[in-house]
């Protein structure tokens, strides 16, 4: 970086020096010297440009090495960390999907057990109430006693089954630990890639400066805007509670819709 | 009551299907985006559409517009259940003629409330 600044300083001071010399020579009608000055100016600019392109190339090479892509290898694409990150994120998608399905399977297995117990309890309660009101004869009572006995057996069996389902639901959440680790690693990689790219962009901007290239910022911005299309959807919003253009929950949605006459 | 659930994630379809079953709606079908949903709507006699917004192929908002533009489907009640939370998007959905809008993550209670409200209005 320091080297960059010094070479830019050199460019600027040479430019100033030579500009004065050029005006001087021209005013004195010394065209040969003027041409010489222009030639020297060109040389300084070219040298700077070559230096910056050289640096950019080296930096690009370093960046590629940093990305650990073997550009000469047969499996260059499979070897890249980005590719690895893609695999890792797919793994997260698979793990979370599997956990969600496993949890829902267990909930679907549990629900009929709970409903069955609750239905039978309700039925027994009605019969028990009739017994308490002395509306049941001896035969009826024997029948009721059998039902109570079988119900107690069922409660014992089904509740231990339910408890094992609940345990399995708990265990199905173990993906969080694994996916959390994977996501943290991928986040670190993205940060690293970004900082390498920023370095490259800075290098490239030095080249632009020596070469006198100007980019149309408005056009770049317009292009980026165009790529955003709200009807495609954006997925979940982050920091919704700190932003005005985003609702922070169902209450906000309902307020907004009712303000629109819903 | 025949309901079509449209979401690109099978787990979300399953959650909504389970919640609807708890609410007494057992006749449900599923589609994974607007492109597959639209022909199903056009050929099957669905009474209600629950759709996500962000899906590959045809999005939920485009599906909603297609439904409203279809002579036979235009009065079909549509509930959007989505993670899209920008005010502009909710306004866009309202203008496109959505009947209800639920943001993810949501609760069973919220889903029930919105469905009840929609049918109250449709029947009333």
Automatic annotation (TrEMBL), chain A:
<feature type="region of interest" description="Disordered">
    <location>
        <begin position="221"/>
        <end position="250"/>
    </location>
</feature>
<dbReference type="Pfam" id="PF04344">
    <property type="entry name" value="CheZ"/>
</dbReference>
<feature type="compositionally biased region" description="Basic and acidic residues">
    <location>
        <begin position="221"/>
        <end position="232"/>
    </location>
</feature>
<dbReference type="GO" id="GO:0097588">
    <property type="term" value="P:archaeal or bacterial-type flagellum-dependent cell motility"/>
</dbReference>
<keyword id="KW-0283">Flagellar rotation</keyword>
<comment type="similarity">
    <text>Belongs to the CheZ family.</text>
</comment>
<dbReference type="InterPro" id="IPR050992">
    <property type="entry name" value="CheZ_family_phosphatases"/>
</dbReference>
<dbReference type="GO" id="GO:0009288">
    <property type="term" value="C:bacterial-type flagellum"/>
</dbReference>
<keyword id="KW-0963">Cytoplasm</keyword>
<dbReference type="InterPro" id="IPR007439">
    <property type="entry name" value="Chemotax_Pase_CheZ"/>
</dbReference>
<protein>
    <recommendedName>
        <fullName>Protein phosphatase CheZ</fullName>
        <ecNumber>3.1.3.-</ecNumber>
    </recommendedName>
</protein>
<dbReference type="GO" id="GO:0006935">
    <property type="term" value="P:chemotaxis"/>
</dbReference>
<keyword id="KW-0145">Chemotaxis</keyword>
<keyword id="KW-0904">Protein phosphatase</keyword>
<dbReference type="GO" id="GO:0050920">
    <property type="term" value="P:regulation of chemotaxis"/>
</dbReference>
<keyword id="KW-0378">Hydrolase</keyword>
<feature type="site" description="Enhances dephosphorylation of CheY-P">
    <location>
        <position position="181"/>
    </location>
</feature>
<comment type="subunit">
    <text>Homodimer.</text>
</comment>
<comment type="function">
    <text>Plays an important role in bacterial chemotaxis signal transduction pathway by accelerating the dephosphorylation of phosphorylated CheY (CheY-P).</text>
</comment>
<dbReference type="GO" id="GO:0005737">
    <property type="term" value="C:cytoplasm"/>
</dbReference>
<dbReference type="GO" id="GO:0004721">
    <property type="term" value="F:phosphoprotein phosphatase activity"/>
</dbReference>
TrEMBL record, chain B:
<keyword id="KW-0902">Two-component regulatory system</keyword>
<dbReference type="InterPro" id="IPR050595">
    <property type="entry name" value="Bact_response_regulator"/>
</dbReference>
<dbReference type="GO" id="GO:0046872">
    <property type="term" value="F:metal ion binding"/>
</dbReference>
<dbReference type="Pfam" id="PF00072">
    <property type="entry name" value="Response_reg"/>
</dbReference>
<keyword id="KW-0460">Magnesium</keyword>
<feature type="modified residue" description="4-aspartylphosphate">
    <location>
        <position position="52"/>
    </location>
</feature>
<dbReference type="InterPro" id="IPR001789">
    <property type="entry name" value="Sig_transdc_resp-reg_receiver"/>
</dbReference>
<keyword id="KW-0479">Metal-binding</keyword>
<feature type="domain" description="Response regulatory">
    <location>
        <begin position="2"/>
        <end position="119"/>
    </location>
</feature>
<protein>
    <submittedName>
        <fullName>Two-component system chemotaxis response regulator CheY</fullName>
    </submittedName>
</protein>
<dbReference type="GO" id="GO:0005737">
    <property type="term" value="C:cytoplasm"/>
</dbReference>
<keyword id="KW-0597">Phosphoprotein</keyword>
<keyword id="KW-0963">Cytoplasm</keyword>
<dbReference type="InterPro" id="IPR011006">
    <property type="entry name" value="CheY-like_superfamily"/>
</dbReference>
<dbReference type="GO" id="GO:0000160">
    <property type="term" value="P:phosphorelay signal transduction system"/>
</dbReference>
């Amino acid at each position: 970086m320091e080297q960059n600044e010094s070479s830019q300083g050199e460019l600027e001071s040479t430019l100033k020096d030579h500009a004065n010399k050029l005006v001087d020579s021209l005013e004195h009608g010394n065209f040969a010297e003027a041409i010489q000055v222009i030639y020297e100016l060109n040389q300084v600019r070219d040298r700077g440009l070559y230096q910056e392109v050289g640096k950019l190339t080296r930096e690009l090479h370093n960046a590629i090495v940093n990305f650990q892509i073997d550009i000469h290898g047969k499996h260059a694409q499979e070897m890249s960390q980005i590719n690895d990150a893609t695999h890792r994120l797919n793994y997260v998608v698979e793990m979370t999907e599997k956990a969600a399905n496993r949890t829902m399977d267990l909930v679907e297995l549990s629900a009929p057990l709970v409903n069955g117990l609750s239905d039978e309890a309700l039925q027994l309660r009605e019969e028990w109430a009739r017994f308490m009101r002395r509306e049941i004869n001896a035969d009826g009572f024997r029948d009721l006693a059998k039902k109570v006995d079988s119900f107690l057996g069922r409660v014992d069996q089904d509740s231990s089954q339910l408890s094992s389902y609940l345990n399995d639901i708990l265990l199905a959440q173990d993906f969080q630990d694994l996916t959390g680790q994977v996501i943290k690693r991928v986040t670190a990689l993205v940060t690293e890639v970004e900082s390498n790219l920023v370095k490259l962009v800075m290098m490239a901007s030095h080249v632009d400066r020596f070469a006198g290239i100007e980019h149309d910022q408005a056009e770049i911005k317009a292009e980026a805007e165009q790529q955003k299309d709200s009807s495609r959807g954006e997925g979940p919003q982050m920091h919704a509670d700190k932003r005005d253009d985003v609702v922070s929950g169902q209450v906000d949605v309902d307020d907004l819709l009712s303000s629109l006459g819903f | 009551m025949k309901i079509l659930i449209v979401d690109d994630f099978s787990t979300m379809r399953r959650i909504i299907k389970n919640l609807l079953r708890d609410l007494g709606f057992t006749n449900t079908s599923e589609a994974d985006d607007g492109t597959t949903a639209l022909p199903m709507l056009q050929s099957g006699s669905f009474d209600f559409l629950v759709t996500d917004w962000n899906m590959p192929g045809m999005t939920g908002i485009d599906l909603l517009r297609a439904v409203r533009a279809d002579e036979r489907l235009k009065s079909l009640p549509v509930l959007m259940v989505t993670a899209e939370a920008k005010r502009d998007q909710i306004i866009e959905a309202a203008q496109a003629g959505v009947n209800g809008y639920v943001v993810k993550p949501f609760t069973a209670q919220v889903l029930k409330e919105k469905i009840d409200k929609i049918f109250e209005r449709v029947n009333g």
